[in-house]
Design brief:
- By secondary structure, the chain is of the alpha+beta class.
- The chain is 33% helix and 21% strand.
- The strands form five sheets. Strands 13, 14, 15, 17, 19, 20, 21 and 23 form an eight-stranded mixed β-sheet that branches.
- Helix 1 packs antiparallel against helix 2.
- The two termini are 54 Å apart.
Length: 678
C-alpha cells in the first residue's frame, strides 16, 4: 500500500531504474567494447541510480559509433566517471547489503554506519578492485590488494561520507519507514545516497586517474578472424579517411590495425594513459604514454592484455588527499549525531511516520516517536462514512444478574466530514465508543478485547471501584496485549455523567478516539435533574496532515487542525430540535486530550447543575453562558429555549470552529445548532 506521495514517485523511479538497467545491460553486452567488470559496474550503478546512471552511461561511456569508443572515452572527465563507476559499483553494493542486514538484525544506526563502511570497503577492495580486476592489473591477488588499498580507501571515504549524511538525516527524519528494507522508501534513500556518494567521490577519482592511481574507462575488443582482418585491410584506406575527417587533429598509427584506426588508441600520447603500461600492450601493440600523464585508457586491449599503472602522485599529495577523505568521512559519520538520535534502530521506531513540524533531536527517544506517529493505513480494518454514528448506546446482556458489555478496540477509518476521513482507534467500530448507560447499584462486567497494534487498558473515569478495576497500565494491571482481553467488573455506586478511556499511552490512544460516555442514572429516578431533551457532547481534537492522522497534542508538530463533537465536525454535527419553552440538558464531557474548550451557548444563559458527575445543590447552582471544559472534566447544564431560531453551541476559541483553518457554512469543528421552533 502506498502511504505517502513519495511512494508513488519511488514506484515510478524504480520502474525507470529497471528499464534503464535493462537497456544498459543489453547495450553493454551487445555493443559496448569494454571489459566485463566495467560492464557490470555500469549495470550496478544504473540499478542504484536509475535514469541518472543511464544518463552517465550514454554521455561518458556508450560507444557513439563503431570503432570510436577509445576516442570517445579519452577526456579526463569521462575517465574520472569510469573510475567513480568502478568505485561506486563495489562500495555501494557492500553498503546496501550491509544496511539491509543490519536493519533486519535491529542494530542501532551508529553501528549500522560502521558495518556499512567496513562492508563497502571490503567489497570494493577485495572483490571489485583486486579480484575482478586481477586479469587486467596483472600480478598476484595480494599484490593487487596492496596496490589498490590507498585509492580504494580515499574513494570509499568520500563515497561513504555522502551516503552516511543522506542515510542519517533521511532515515532518522520524519518518515522512519526509510529504516525498513521492506519499504520502498528504504531503497529510495539508498538510491539517493548512492547519487550523493557518487557526486562527492567523483573529484577524488578524477585526481587519482590523472595521477595514475586508478584506472578509468577501458576498451576491450574481441580478436578478429583472418577473414575479417583481410576485409579490413582491403577497406583500410576508406576507414582511415573517415577517421581523419572526424578527428582531423589526430595522427593515425600506421602500425595499428587499420580496422580500428581511430585517435582513441592510435595517438601515442594516450595509447594507454590510464595505466601507464611501461612496454605497451603486447597483444595490441599500443605504445606507452609518451608524456607520462596517466589519466585513463583511451586505447584498446586484447582479452588477456594487462593494464599496469605507474602512479606519479607524490607521498605528500597522497597524505593530504587521504587526510581530507578521512575528515569528510568523519563529518558524514559523526556530525549527524548532533541532530538525530543514532542510537535507535529500525526495530525501535517500527516504520513510524512523524507529524510535519515535530521537533526531533538527538535526545528524542523511540517511545516519543511511536506515541506521536501517524496511524499506519495498513492497519485499518474497516472504513465508515457519515451514515455510521458514534456514541451509539450499547445494550447489555444479563448473566446471573450482571449487566455484561463487550468492547473491542480496532483501527478504522472514520468520516468526520463528507470529504474528510481520519484514521482512528475505535471501540466497537465507532468514534466515540458506544455509550454505556446503567443505573446506580448495577453490577456490571465489561469484557475488553484488544485488536490494536499496541497494548491498551480502559479506565473508568471518576468512578469509585476496586483498585484492580481502575485501569492504569502497569500500575493496577498489566496492559492488554494485542489480541488479548481483560474483564472489568464492579458495582456502580455513583450516578451522573462519566466516561471511559484508554489509560495506556493515553496521549496517543485517547487522542485517536479511544473513549466513550458512561451515563449512570440515579437509583432514585426523582434525584435526576429532568429536562425535555438530553444531549451528550464529547469533545476531541484531530491532527491530519498529508493524508495521515496523528494524535493531536499541545506540542510542536502536534497542534490539531480538526475538531469534533461526538465524532463529527460542523457542518456534519447533529442539529438539536426543540420548541420554545422546552429545556435542554447538555452533558459536556472533556474527552478532549490536551486542550481546554470554553463551550458557549447562544440565546441566553444556562444553569450549571452538576460538575464531574456530582449534582450541585440547588442553592449553589449558578447561571453562565460559557464554561471551560478541560480534559477529564464534565459539566451538566440546563438551557431553556427562550426564542425561536437557530442557536449555537460552540467552542469560543475561533480556531476550534474551523476545519483545517477554513470555515464551512458559517463555521466548523466544535459547533452544534439548536433549531428552536415556535
Amino acid at each position: 500500500m502506498f502511504v505517502q506521495p513519495v511512494d508513488y514517485f519511488l514506484a515510478v523511479w524504480f520502474i525507470l531504474a529497471g528499464l534503464s538497467t535493462a537497456y544498459v545491460a543489453w547495450d553493454q553486452f551487445r555493443n559496448n567494447p569494454e571489459p566485463v567488470v566495467m560492464k557490470w559496474g555500469f549495470i550496478l550503478v544504473t540499478l542504484y541510480m536509475g535514469p541518472l546512471g543511464l544518463l552517465i552511461y550514454v554521455l561518458a561511456d556508450k560507444e557513439p559509433r563503431p570503432g570510436e569508443h577509445e576516442a570517445f572515452t579519452k577526456p579526463l572527465w569521462k575517465q574520472g566517471v569510469g573510475s567513480t563507476i568502478h568505485c561506486v559499483a563495489g562500495d555501494a553494493t557492500g553498503i546496501i547489503l550491509a544496511a539491509a542486514i543490519t536493519a533486519a538484525l535491529g542494530l542501532p544506526m551508529w553501528i549500522d554506519l560502521i558495518v556499512e563502511y567496513v562492508a563497502g570497503f571490503a567489497f570494493g577492495l577485495f572483490i571489485f578492485q583486486s579480484l575482478f580486476m586481477k586479469s587486467m592489473m596483472g600480478g598476484t591477488y595480494w599484490e593487487n590488494v596492496r596496490k589498490s588499498f590507498m585509492p580504494e580507501f580515499i574513494s570509499m571515504n568520500f563515497m561513504m561520507a555522502g551516503m552516511a549524511l543522506v542515510m542519517s538525516f533521511l532515515m532518522m527524519g520524519s518518515d522512519m519507514r526509510a529504516m525498513d528494507p521492506a519499504e520502498l522508501l528504504f531503497w529510495g534513500v539508498m538510491s539517493f545516497g548512492v547519487v550523493v556518494g557518487f557526486i562527492i567521490a567523483y573529484p577524488s577519482n578524477v585526481w587519482m586517474v590523472a595521477g595514475g592511481l586508478k584506472h578509468g574507462l577501458m576498451t576491450e575488443r574481441e580478436p578478429q578472424s583472418d577473414k575479417a582482418k583481410e576485409r579490413e585491410r582491403a577497406h583500410g584506406g576508406a576507414v582511415a579517411a573517415v577517421a581523419r575527417r572526424r578527428h582531423p587533429h589526430t595522427r593515425l598509427d600506421e602500425h595499428a590495425n587499420p580496422g580500428h584506426a581511430n585517435p582513441g588508441h592510435a595517438n601515442p600520447g594516450h595509447a594507454n594513459p590510464g595505466h601507464g603500461n611501461p612496454g605497451g600492450n603486447p597483444e595490441t601493440g599500443h605504445p606507452r604514454s609518451g608524456h607520462g600523464s596517466s589519466h585513463g585508457n583511451g586505447g584498446s586491449r586484447g582479452p588477456h592484455g594487462g593494464h599496469g599503472m605507474e602512479p606519479d602522485a607524490t607521498v605528500p599529495q597522497l597524505a593530504a588527499f587521504g587526510g581530507v577523505s578521512v575528515l569528510a568521512l568523519a563529518l558524514g559519520m559523526i556530525a549527524p549525531a548532533n541532530w538525530v538520535n543514532l542510537t535507535l534502530s529500525a526495530r525501535d521506531v517500527g516504520g513510524a511516520i512523524m507529524p510535519p513540524g515535530m521537533i526531533m533531536d538527538r535526545d528524542t527517544p523511540a517511545a516519543a516517536m511511536l506515541d506521536m506517529a501517524a496511524v499506519h493505513p495498513r492497519l485499518i480494518t474497516a472504513s465508515h462514512g457519515l451514515e455510521v454514528r458514534g456514541d451509539r448506546e450499547l445494550e447489555a446482556r444479563m448473566e446471573n444478574g450482571v449487566k455484561v458489555f463487550d468492547l473491542e478496540t480496532s483501527v478504522i477509518r472514520w468520516a468526520i466530514l463528507p470529504d474528510v476521513k481520519v484514521d482512528a482507534y475505535a471501540i466497537n467500530n465507532q468514534v466515540p465508543g458506544p455509550r454505556l448507560h446503567i443505573r446506580q447499584g448495577d453490577r456490571v462486567r465489561i469484557n475488553v478485547t484488544n485488536r490494536l497494534p499496541e497494548s491498551t487498558t480502559i479506565h473508568w473515569h471518576g468512578l469509585i471501584l476496586p483498585n484492580e478495576m481502575d485501569g492504569p497500565a502497569k500500575i493496577t494491571q498489566e496492559p492488554i496485549a494485542p489480541g488479548g482481553s481483560y474483564r472489568y467488573e464492579f458495582t456502580a455506586g455513583q450516578s451522573g455523567t462519566y466516561f471511559y478511556h484508554s489509560h495506556d499511552h493515553v496521549d496517543r490512544q485517547q487522542a485517536l478516539g479511544l473513549y466513550g460516555a458512561l451515563i449512570i442514572d440515579p437509583a432514585n429516578p426523582q434525584d435526576e435533574i429532568a429536562a425535555d431533551h438530553d444531549y451528550v457532547i464529547q469533545l476531541q481534537e484531530w491532527l491530519m496532515r498529508e493524508g495521515l492522522t496523528f494524535p493531536a497534542m499541545p506540542m510542536d508538530g502536534g497542534q490539531p487542525n480538526y475538531f469534533t463533537i461526538n465524532g463529527r465536525a460542523y457542518p456534519s454535527t447533529d442539529t438539536i430540535r426543540m420548541k420554545v419553552g422546552e429545556t435542554l440538558k447538555v452533558r459536556f464531557i472533556g474527552t478532549n486530550n490536551g486542550f481546554i474548550h470554553p463551550m458557549h451557548i447562544h440565546g441566553g444563559p444556562f444553569e450549571i447543575v452538576a460538575r464531574d458527575g456530582e449534582t450541585i445543590p440547588e442553592s449553589a447552582r449558578f447561571l453562565a453562558d460559557t464554561v471551560n471544559v478541560g480534559p477529564g472534566q464534565r459539566y451538566d447544564v440546563v438551557w431553556q429555549a427562550r426564542r425561536p431560531g437557530k442557536w449555537l453551541i460552540h467552542c469560543h476559541i475561533g480556531h476550534h470552529t474551523t476545519n483545517n483553518n477554513v470555515e464551512e457554512k458559517g463555521g466548523g469543528g466544535l459547533m452544534v445548532v439548536i433549531d428552536v421552533q415556535p
